[in-house]
Amino acid sequence: MIHVKLEGHDYEYEIGELIKVFYNVDEFQFADEITNDRVGIINKLYYENEKKFSISSLYDKGKIIMEIKEEFNIEDRNPLKERKLVKQKLKLTLFELLAQYRKRRPKWGILTGIRPTKIVYELMNEGFTEEEIKNILKVQYRLNEEKIQLLINIVNIEKNLMNNKEDYVSIYIGIPFCPTKCLYCSFPSNSICKKNDKREAYIESLVYEIKEVSIILREGNKKIDTIYIGGGTPTSLTNDQLDKLFVTIKEELDLSEVREFTVEAGRPDTITIEKLETIKKHGIERISINPQTMNDPTLKLIKRDHTVEDIKSTYKLAKQIGFKTINMDLIIGLPNEGIDEFENTMKEMIKLDPENITVHTLAIKKSSILKANKEKYKLCHENSAEKMIELANKYCKKMGMSPYYMYRQKYMVGNLENIGYGKVNHECIYNIEIIEEKQTIIALGAGAVSKIYYPEENRLERVPNVTSLDHYINRTKEMVERKKKELLGKNMK
Length: 493
Description:
Blueprint: E1 2-7, H1 12-22, E2 28-30, E3 39-48, E4 51-60, E5 63-72, H2 79-102, H3 117-125, H4 130-139, H5 145-158, E6 168-175, E7 177-178, E8 190-191, H6 199-219, E9 223-231, H7 239-252, E10 260-266, H8 273-281, E11 286-289, H9 296-301, H10 308-321, E12 325-332, H11 339-352, E13 356-361, H12 369-372, H13 382-398, E14 402-407, E15 418-422, H14 429-436, E16 440-444, E17 449-454, E18 459-464, H15 469-474, H16 476-488
Parallel strand pairs: 1-2, 1-3, 6-9, 6-16, 7-8, 9-10, 10-11, 11-12, 12-13
Antiparallel strand pairs: 3-4, 4-5, 13-15, 14-15, 17-18
Helix pairs in contact: 1-2, 4-5, 6-7, 6-16, 7-8, 11-13
């Protein structure tokens, strides 16, 4: 166990997140003192006359064996900018110390946040050129060339697709049902139980929320940019329930300026030709069919009740029906999968040739079955995960796709990233808007979280719906009132 001591500052969270890039969470702890019987790290901020210093020191048996020190000045006395610079300098010396000691340099440098593209946008807004931004990312954040270029490429695509007009919003509708709960899943979902099937009651409550939100949008003079129906698995609903949902959306919401409407068809074991035809007849051109892997043993292990052949036949059926864009989600680092298994998945993608692929790196979330039983499974190492990301990039390029959005999560294998790849004009605009957080997202359904964006203050206000299915069904009016209060500044009568 490594002890970590902070001196001259209290940025325990930020320092802890960076240490997790190099060590497992159970391999270090913060302490008031560094004892002589173990390895210890001191991360220190101190002042000497008018100069400021960040210093990170590594101790072994009471003696300093390595030390990184940096002097810096604070020219901008804005408190927020000063804190940001101080944290950055403290992390830089710690990063260099651990990179040398552990003999590896993580490609994302000191960045541990989930939206690294935001840094690029901030620098662009401040007037920096692309070359200057690349240098800042390299020197001030220690990103390697590969990740720097990835960020630049993504931002150059995103900025042409985003709609930052204040009178536009996107709509998210959550369907919290799944036939089974996947091993790695941490999302709120409810199994479909014939003895206590709550789907119909849920749809009734959702229809009510859609109708009330349509009134809020009209009163607030808001236009709809994109709609995304996710889950859970939306196609866990019956065909009649899906039809009722789409009819309500078309009757109650003004869709005249909607640029994109996506439905996560998700799991092949929930998709029928009738459901696909229902989706298509309502004018929806973009769906997701998510295999996660194209290896049958892994599908069984992660508790997905479908086969690779089911995925292929469902995809071909969707193509025959005529959907313009089909996205397929894949996961790097699934239990018992190595480089060969992942390459097999990518070879199968080449054969199908979808318009859009989202490549996730496995995140071991606290509320997942995988987290509770982690010791039972063989998980890939960081080097293998990095090679899988390289393979994904290579095969996606072969299919004519470019990376168009990315984000990172906590507890990801190898501290890596999730990347969306798309062919030209097949990018998912909603994904960009939700990640970049420059547009209001109004979210409906159990567990859905609205994010109201205030551009003048550049801030978000979260308005969550309750997660419990029963609570949502019984308290839908309260969920609507929360939105109305935030969006219109008044309570419902």
